[in-house]
Amino acid sequence: MTHSENLHQLLLQLDDRGYKAYKDIKGRYQFPHFTLIVDRVQGDPFASPSQVRVQIPQSIADFPPELYRTPSREIALRDYLTRQFDRVAKTMSDRRGTGNSGLIAITQVGQSVLERTSAFITDELVEVRFVVGLPARGRRISGWQAAEMLCKDIPQLVDDALKYKSLDATAIQQHVETVEDADWLRQQLDERELVAFVADGAILPRMSGVNDRPLRDDAIPFQSPEALRVTFTCPNRGVVTGMGISEGVTLIVGGGYHGKSTLLGALEVGVYNHIPGDGREFVVTRSSAVKIRAEDGRSIASVDISPFINQLPQGRSTRQFSTPNASGSTSQAANIIEALEADAQLLLVDEDTAATNFMIRDHRMQQLIAKEKEPITPFIDKVRQLYTDYGVSTLLVMGGSGDYFDVADTVIAMDNFQPHDVTKKAKAIAEQHKTERLAEGGTEFGDIAPRIPSPESIDPSRGQREVKLKVRDVDEVVFGTEEIDVAAVEQIVEKGQLRAIAQAIVYAKRQCINGRHTMPEILNRVMADIESNGLDILSNLPEGDLVLFRRFELAAALNRLRTLKVR
User: In which domain, by residue range, is 478 found?
Assistant: First the structure.
């Protein structure tokens, strides 16, 4: 290991040399209170920034073990350190030349608390991974600026963001306890036969469609209807009350702009924990919940959508349905079957993003178009069978069709962002005003047959490169010569998740996609390997921008690879 003074001297010696000479600084450097590790050096000032790490001994960092003694607390503390590093780095990151010169940055985070490779903590040390843009003038090294960055700014950053004595002890304690309580609440849902919980006082509305922070002005705190109120005693916070949503079929109804979709949106991301002050800290949903929507234009690879769609014109089979350009109804059918194949136990559906002809066929339309002329069996005739046959619950926003009253177990009406239990009233209306529509779904939901992906159809290479991956925000990933569009996969909330998913597909191709293993078996293997060995198994380098994902989003991305072939 080289001493920090040698790094300072080397950087000054590199001044005004060609940019590629920066390669000489790759290695480990001992500073007085930490170790700096340069893992990868960028090829030019406009390339992806250089990857570096700092490791601080716990004798220096001095974080109390109680802050990371459980998995929940450890992930929460790692999240907190990532946020503190980001806060301080933004005050130091400064333009120091061309391209990315002067950049000091860590993976970008949102409102969720997720397991990331940006920070780690053990009894021995704290490790934080980030990137730096090594300074240049044109394409020549600015050595004295690089020396200032690496040998002055980074030690200051370590002092200000990664030592317990420099941080707000009360804020850290609140952060880890909030996450631990949310995890505990989510674990209680099964035992209480609930699929979700929304705490009294929660703030559900967001600033805007592109700003996930809580709405501050005019936000109405959530209050559970008395009939649905449940009570929990959390390990840290103590007694928490709120609305419990039971297993089965639940409708969220109400007028436009009264909070139906806002509630569903909060439940959709309730599969993740949230930072204190987010407003949704204690909005928790079962981890097996998947948001379902129509998705015109997506590709489908041999999915058995026959529970929903049959008897297509020209006798086309729907037991192994494939298309490069799905309609709204076929895409929604495939999205449901693929989620069930991945073992989803709760479906979240909003009529605003669903295909109307997939959701309902009323009595009048049944009279006009005979069943033998209509290939689609609407969701209303299958949603109850999903629960009775497979134990899969559904939470459905429905403002336009009272026919769903007949199949619902619970009906929640949103009025000015406040929920009301209107189950009895909805059932009375259903009894008084019969729909006269005929059930079209048969007596059983139908089989869910696992598929076997073909390894030849999954190719991450491009040109001379064995693996070419590039992530564009949370919407799209370049995978070899293909582009995987995941804009409709709404439970991907951070770019780092999509980056990890892309690498997980490559890992799966190498480890277990061999023409014999089914999709569920592949998902089980990848997620088990990550749980045992961490996200680092997906990469050759110790990257700092990978974020843990769920099996459902991994399956969704793989299913949207347009070259995918299955049997």
Answer: 455-559
